[in-house]
Amino acid sequence: HCVDHLYSLFLKLCGNKDKEDQKEGKRVQTTSVFLPLVPYALIDDLQWNPHHFWLATISDHVAGENSSYLYLTDLQGHNLIAPFSIGGEELAWSPDGTELAVVQENGNIILWKVRQSPTGTVQVTKLRQLLAGTASDENIAWSPSGRWLVCRHRTYQAEDYLFC
């Protein structure tokens, strides 16, 4: 999937287009998702939950200020949680969609538990903090089993990866 308009209140999504479609000039199906962000807010990272139509977004809360907040929205653009200060730039959903890992500005990784109650409300609670020492703008990734996180340690030397 591709993403356009990262400074916009609407996120334009486009489906996969295979090489045959490209050769034939076929149009790609697109849709727009409303993001309840302040106008001109910088989006640091965004990812779909692997099992729900929930989009986790780290974005400025005040345009032009470095004020990273976590937003969790559905396809209709409804906030599923009250946005809160997250102090990070990168995030990754666990493969089962129940945990969200966020790299903090200080290099630590915070694991958040995300669950939906029987009434439909979504709750986010802090599980634990990993003292990873990674740069705040480095990607993190879960193993397919959800047991491990991989991130780059901030020394930036060859093969310097940390498994949490």
Write the layout of secondary structure elements.
Blueprint: E1 2-4, E2 10-14, H1 19-24, E3 30-34, E4 43-48, E5 55-60, E6 68-73, E7 84-85, E8 88-93, E9 99-104, E10 109-116, E11 122-130, E12 140-142, E13 149-152, E14 161-163
Antiparallel strand pairs: 1-2, 2-3, 4-5, 5-6, 6-7, 8-9, 9-10, 10-11, 12-13, 13-14
The N- to C-terminal Cα distance equals 28 Å
Tell me the overall shape. globular
- What share of residues is helical? under 10%
Number of strands: 14
Helix/sheet category: mainly beta
Strand order of the largest sheet: 4-5-6-7
Structure report:
With 164 residues, this protein is mostly beta strands. Helices cover 4% and strands 44% of the residues. The N terminus is likely disordered.
Name the descriptors.
single chain; 164 residues; mainly beta; 4-stranded antiparallel sheet; disordered N terminus
Provide a short characterization of the protein structure.
By secondary structure, the protein is mainly β.
